[in-house]
């Protein structure tokens, strides 16, 4: 696997559901990379949950939570950026673009 292949063909997002009590919270993680160089999916959102609280008006209170999820593509920092075939295809596309711009 190369970084180029993964970034081209992997899903752009990952849908994640977190269940807290009887309520599900849906998050969307986006494909990216970490400072360590690994490819990953990352989601960071604030959610609100309701908690029983006998001292609160109505017997319930709300609490805000910060949710952070990172899905690391293990070992991807060691993957080559591209393969020789990908490099050749990229050079071919670039050569065609140059030829078209020179002809028009």
Give a summary of the structure in a few sentences.
The protein is of the alpha+beta class.
Describe this structure as you would to a colleague.
The structure is a single chain. The protein is about 25% helix and about 45% strand. The protein has about 100 residues and is α+β, with helices and mostly antiparallel strands. The chain has a four-stranded antiparallel β-sheet, with no helix packed on it. It has two helices and four strands. It has one domain (about 5-80). It is elongated and about 75 Å long. The protein has helices spanning about 5-10, 85-104, and strands spanning about 15-20, 25-35, 40-50, 60-70. The model has no long low-confidence stretch (mean pLDDT about 90).
Judged by helices, strands and strand pairing, the structural class is: alpha+beta
Q: The biggest beta sheet, please?
A: 4 strands, antiparallel
Strand order of the largest sheet: 1-2-3-4
Order of helices and strands: HEEEEH
Helix content: 25-40%
Terminal CA distance reads 38 Å
Count of strand segments: 4
Poorly predicted sequence stretches spanning 5 or more consecutive residues: none
Shape: elongated
What's the domain count? 1
Give the number of helices. Answer: 2
Mean pLDDT: 90
| Rg value | 23 Å
In what range is the share of β-strand residues?
35-45%
């Amino acid at each position: 696997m190369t970084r180029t292949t993964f970034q081209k063909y992997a899903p752009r997002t990952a849908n994640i559901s977190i269940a807290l009590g009887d309520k599900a919270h849906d998050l969307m993680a986006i494909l990216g990379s970490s400072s360590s160089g690994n490819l990953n999916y990352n989601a960071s959102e604030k959610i609100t949950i309701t908690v029983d609280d006998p001292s609160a008006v109505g017997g319930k209170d709300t609490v805000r939570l910060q949710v952070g999820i990172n899905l690391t593509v293990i070992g991807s920092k060691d993957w080559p950026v591209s393969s020789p075939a990908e490099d050749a295809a990229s050079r071919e596309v670039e050569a065609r673009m140059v030829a078209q711009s020179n002809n028009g």
